[in-house]
Amino acid sequence: MLSNYFVYIMTNEYRTTLYIGMTNNIQRRIAQHYFDSQNARKSFAGKYNCIYLVYYECFDAPKDAIAREKELKKWRREKKNRLISTFNPKWETLNNQVI
């Protein structure tokens, strides 16, 4: 991946809770979510075990990624579900597929 910024959606085991975030290091961020779910549980993603990456977009500029993150957070759940299903029809875990 040549892009430096990512907007991503994490979910829990049963795909009932979604977490939308933005980062410049997606693997490190996935590891942080996992660590928090197993230990501190202080963040939203940690508290609700959102440790499975199901969607991501790449951006070259941080302002573009931030704008997209804000846009997605305003969407209704049904629209987010359609976005994920278009990108990842089986809602498979993509944690090891991004570099």
Kindly describe this structure:
With 99 residues, the protein is α+β, with helices and mostly antiparallel strands. The protein has a single domain (5-87), classed as GIY-YIG endonuclease, CATH 3.40.1440.10. It has four helices and three strands; from the N terminus they run E-E-H-H-E-H-H. It has a three-stranded antiparallel beta sheet, sandwiched between helices. A hairpin with a 6-residue loop joins strand 1 (5-11) and strand 2 (18-23). The radius of gyration is 13 Å and the shape is globular. It starts with a strand and ends in a 12-residue tail after the last helix. The mean pLDDT is 94. This is GIY-YIG nuclease family protein.
User: Runs with pLDDT <50, length 5+?
Assistant: none
Largest sheet: 3 strands, antiparallel
Calculate Rg over CA atoms: 13 Å
Overall body shape:
globular
**Class of secondary structure makeup:** alpha+beta
CATH class: Alpha Beta
Calculate the mean pLDDT score and round it: 94
- The number of helices is 4
Portion of residues in helices?
40-55%
Straight-line distance between termini: 6 Å
From the 3D structure, determine the CATH topology: GIY-YIG endonuclease
**What is the second-level CATH architecture?**
3-Layer(aba) Sandwich
The spatial strand order of the largest sheet comes to 2-1-3
Please report which band the strand proportion falls in: under 5%, 5-15%, 15-25%, 25-35%, 35-45% or over 45%. 15-25%
* Topology order in helix (H) and strand (E) letters: EEHHEHH
The CATH homologous superfamily corresponds to GIY-YIG endonuclease
Q: What is the total domain count?
A: 1
Please count the beta strands (DSSP E, at least 2 residues each).
3
Organism: Meishania litoralis
Protein name: GIY-YIG nuclease family protein
